Amino acid sequence: MGSEAALPKWASTPCIMGIDEAGRGPVLGPMVYGCLYCARSYQKTLATLNFADSKTLKEEKREELFENLKADESIGWSVDVIDPRELSAKMLKKNKVNLNEISHDSAIGLINRVLNMGVLLTEVYLDTVGDADKYRIKLSERFPSIKFVVAKKADSLYPVVSGASIVAKVTRDKALREWVLEETTENMHRSFGSGYPGDPETKAWLAHHKHSVFGFPTLVRFSWGTCTSYYKDMVEVFWESDRVDEDVANSSSGKQLKLRNVGFTPSKRKSEEMESSAKGRCKFFQTRKLEQLTHF
Amino acid sequence: MEDERGTIGSINLSQKDKEEKVNLSSQVHHLPCCIKFNGPCSVSQYFKPKPKGMEIDGLAVEEAHFRGRKLQGTTISLPNGYSGFVLAKNNSGKRKAFDVSEGRSDNWEMKAKFDKLTYWNHDSPPSKDDPFLRSFHWFTVAEAVSSPLYVT
């Protein structure tokens, strides 16, 4: 999604872009990366448009500003909406992808998208994710022709990033508002609240929508620490893929400890019980996981 | 291995009591995890496989999510001449004493059958190399080793 008209003339002059995110912290719903770009020569005008960090603005004000910037022909924008299913899946893969990597990839994807449209990006401003210097170096290596400014609170320091934060925040709110729940069970409702773990409305929604076998609807980010407290009452689930992690965990790493707390990593005894290993049988059976059962 | 004799039992596949047993074809899912639960569950309301519109090794790939994990799977037909059954134990209380002295004895009854099932991998798309598909090789081997050997 983004501005899709024919490439404006100003796009072939040096351009600046801001990138910001919305919905990184919430336990449910998509995470949205938004960008806003314009000619460097438009920068001064941009500063007069009253873009501020989206968090400091009221919802109506944000939406009004978003409408304004969509109508402004001197501004381009784009968004990357990352589905909660994708967030959970990546963070719970065998080789786990952390949220910082997902964020970096999303920002890189937006830069690529805008470059591929033919916009001459020379400066990109963004909030830091993880260590600012490392992030800047990572981006600079990938896009040597662009000057990157990675800063904490970039969304309140640079109007172009404030604009991007509005694009992201309004898109995230709209996505959550219009979210079509995949599950077809009765008694579901859509009072998600903000999605932030501390929001009483969000807590109530989670408590009401938990399911002993399935956990939660797929709107929820299962990999979030917030979900932990609910897993205690749910049916235990042991994954074949966690068994590989276990051996690593035994030798080192605190990462696994986290997972164990979340209730994903089985104990050794239990994992053996869940999957046929065909231990001690000939290779034909082992590779096909065919075990001989004397009791069932 | 407390009892090497294993289980003695019978499996009743007759369909006398009801005209037709429930056919669960395409509703049976083999997941790459162990769910510590036995009982009815609102599967179709929560578990929503979707076709991916692509094939690997001639297997139509499907995608679903369970407990936050992405599953990729495929629906397969069981080999010709083989069927899948859902069995339930049908033991009367009396047998308990007999179990202790003579080894366990179980009677199983068919509750439903299927000729298709969907198996799921976590993280990797289905392929001909999946152990689950390869386990069917045993059928061929089993037939070969149990058929009479003719020496000419």
From TrEMBL, chain A:
Any one GO biological process: DNA replication, removal of RNA primer
Co-factor remark: Manganese or magnesium. Binds 1 divalent metal ion per monomer in the absence of substrate. May bind a second metal ion after substrate binding.
Gene Ontology MF annotations: metal ion binding; RNA binding; RNA-DNA hybrid ribonuclease activity
Keywords for the protein's UniProt record, in alphabetical order: Endonuclease, Hydrolase, Metal-binding, Nuclease
All copies of domain RNase H type-2, residue ranges: 14-236
Binding site for a divalent metal cation: 20-21, 127
Protein origin, superkingdom: Eukaryota
CDD domains listed in its UniProt record: RNase_HII_eukaryota_like (cd07181)
EC top class, as a word: hydrolase
Coiled-coil region: none
Entry keyword Hydrolase: yes
Reactions catalysed: Endonucleolytic cleavage to 5'-phosphomonoester
Cofactor(s) needed for function: Mn(2+); Mg(2+)
InterPro entries, sorted: RNase_H2_suA (IPR004649), RNase_HII/HIII (IPR001352), RNase_HII/HIII_dom (IPR024567), RNase_HII_hlx-loop-hlx_cap_dom (IPR023160), RNaseH-like_sf (IPR012337), RNaseH_sf (IPR036397)
Family annotation (PROSITE patterns): RNASE_H_2
Residue stretches spanning the membrane: none
Family to which the UniProt record says this protein belongs: Belongs to the RNase HII family. Eukaryotic subfamily.
Descriptive protein name: Ribonuclease
Annotated organism of origin: Durio zibethinus
UniProtKB/TrEMBL annotation, chain B:
Gene Ontology terms: cellular component: ribonuclease H2 complex
Regions annotated as coiled coil: none
InterPro entries listed in its UniProt record: RNase_H2_suC (IPR013924)
The organism of origin for this protein: Durio zibethinus (Durian)
Source lineage: Eukaryota, Viridiplantae, Streptophyta, Embryophyta, Tracheophyta
Protein name per its UniProtKB record: Ribonuclease H2 subunit C isoform X1
One Pfam family hit: RNase_H2_suC
GO biological process: RNA catabolic process
